[in-house]
Amino acid sequence: MIADIHSLVGAYALDAVDDLERAAFERHLAECESCRAEAAELRETAARLADGAWSVPPPRLRDAVLAEMAETRQLPPETVRTPRLRRSRRFLLTAAAAVVVAAAGAGTAVHVIDDQRVRDQEVAARAASDREAQVRAILAAPDVVLRGQELRDGGRVTVAYSRARDTGVVLLAAGAPARSGQVYQLWTVRSEVPVSEGVLAAGEYSAVRIVRGMSSASVVGVSVEPPGGSARPTDMVAGVKIV
Amino acid sequence: MAESGTSRRADHLVPVPGPDAEPPAVADELLRAVGRGDEQAFGRLYDLLAPRVYGLIRRVLRDPALAEEVTQEVLVEVWRRAARFDPAQGSANAWVFTIAHRRAVDRVRAEQKAADRTVRAGAAALDSPYDSVADEVSGRLERRQVRHCLDALTGLQREVVTLAYYQGHSYPQVAELLKTPLGTVKTRMRDGLIRLRDCLGVEATA
């Protein structure tokens, strides 16, 4: 629930959240100054844990890093200076949408939110702009609710939805392609009837889907199916209850 | 890319100061200079932070060779993005280790296959010999305080914090591993970090 999203502050500082949770949490931070202060302090604390893992790297690493540095162009400063512990809501939402879109487009599921990959033109080109706007709108909804579940064979499905907008975003981040040439398929259950919300291509194991009419959905599910998908789920690997 | 031999090692170990001699502001100043394109400052920042960046990444990935590769990526990323470091948002330390830790967690989750990790854990046992010696001497001071403060946590606080930070597990994975409800795990992560903060004397940025 959005009401207790701040309870994620420790997990957030430890990077123990998934991308969608991180995006939602950073949106929450944009709106709460005392929460930002706590998150910043816990981040500083988590960084100190690196002291406990001290290990001298091989000497050749220094030469390799300095050699690569000499050939690497630096990014310019951000043109808009952000005020202390405060970023604009718009920036955060764009970043949140970008990470979701990037997760959908790339082969791997996990991205650092402000990682350069997010800005990669290739990924940006793939992002249909209206879809990105819709994802952004859902994540920005004041009543957004997050639900998630581990998949049976590893990975995670996360659902962010807004009752007011009657729309949700499903982020599938399975750890690996489905076994033996099968594919992942997304479902909602409406009045006890499973409805397909899209089939992934063979070999794909991450996806972002916008699901409409969330108010009539009681479950968002993931199944493993023969290529092309099925009319009814044959092997469910996750089912997220929508309350 | 050849080994430059052991004399080199002594070289770059000497200037690495202990925590008493190294106020965090040093890293902040160096990183700001790096942001202005100062290559020498980058070399000094490397000497200051590389053992911790490499140590952390190696601890999370449990594979010295992969850790070396990821450490290089992270440190070059620090160079690339240094001009975007904003001291008002937090310390240089937090900025660098946020990049390093997220990158390590990224990698570990991308290839989270049990068999893989078992092989890696085996490989990690075959440490290069200089590691253990150098570790003992250079890291002792730094590690002592963190270990002392981790010891001051309750057992569950310590477990949830270390499983997440040093092993890259998400909080649902931690809950599963410890057979503990999700809500409890989230709460212990938060109050564990708060207790660590107080023990380590971490302050919000001025």
Structure description:
The complex is a heterodimer of chains A (243) and B (206). Chain A folds into 2 domains: 2-52 and 87-131, no CATH class; 143-241, Sandwich (Immunoglobulin-like). Chain A is globular and about 60 Å long. Chain A is of the alpha+beta class and 243 residues long. In chain A, 34% of the residues lie in helices and 24% in strands. Chain A has helices at residues 9-13, 19-30, 33-48, 60-70, 89-105, 116-119, 121-126, 129-140; strands at 145-150, 155-162, 167-174, 183-190, 193-199, 206-212, 217-225, 236-241. In chain A, the strands form 2 sheets. Chain A has a 4-stranded antiparallel beta sheet with strand order 1-2-3-6. The model of chain A is unreliable at 81-95 and 101-125 (pLDDT under 50). Chain B has 206 residues and is mainly α. Chain B has a domain at 6-127: Rna Polymerase Sigma Factor, Chain: A, CATH 1.10.1740.10. Helix content of chain B is 74%, strand content 0%. Chain B has helices at residues 6-13, 24-35, 39-61, 64-81, 92-110, 114-125, 129-151, 155-165, 171-178, 182-200. The termini of chain B are far apart. Mean pLDDT of chain B is 79; it is low at 1-21 and 114-138. The chains are: A alpha+beta (243), B mainly alpha (206). The interface between A and B is large, with 67 and 102 residues.
